[in-house]
């Protein structure tokens, strides 16, 4: 057996041993946060080819124009999400920090607000702003009311309204964009689905 092959086996054994040790090792807070940040960036910045087809926004007019894309985010809309005087869609802080923020470039400041193009499932365009409110809540605002009116999103005791959204970077413009897919289902259907 050549020494090269032996060295390769030794390296593989050492790597396996290191991984086993790391699996059970307690990390200090700084190392843990660094690893979590690397994991977040790596997971969120998957090339579009690695997404499952069901994770990809199904908008025909956008085929070939989506570069980096977040995983889909599903949300049951609250009454306040659909109130005209609120004029915003709240996005989960955890989801935004794990899946959306890694798509930002160094010049985009979500605290100041980022102008984004939002597409519905038919490819219709709505201009909105993606913003962090007082370090607590991520929102899509400004054009949100127009989107709600266009898709007749309003509170109704007989229907549950939800949205699925994706954030992506447009291949040609390099700008941030969203796709939002609204869905209404009867409360009876929703309760049957949750029991199944």
From TrEMBL:
Its main location: nucleus. The lineage of its organism: Eukaryota, Viridiplantae, Streptophyta, Embryophyta, Tracheophyta. Keywords: DNA-binding, Nucleus, Transcription, Transcription regulation. It comes from Fagus sylvatica (Beechnut). The keyword Transcription applies. One of its GO terms (cellular component) is nucleus. It is found in: Nucleus. This is TF-B3 domain-containing protein. InterPro entries: At2g31720-like, B3_DNA-bd, DNA-bd_pseudobarrel_sf. PANTHER family: B3 DOMAIN PLANT PROTEIN-RELATED (PTHR31541), TF-B3 DOMAIN-CONTAINING PROTEIN (PTHR31541:SF28). Residues 74-184 form the TF-B3 domain. GO terms for molecular function: DNA binding. It comes from the Eukaryota.
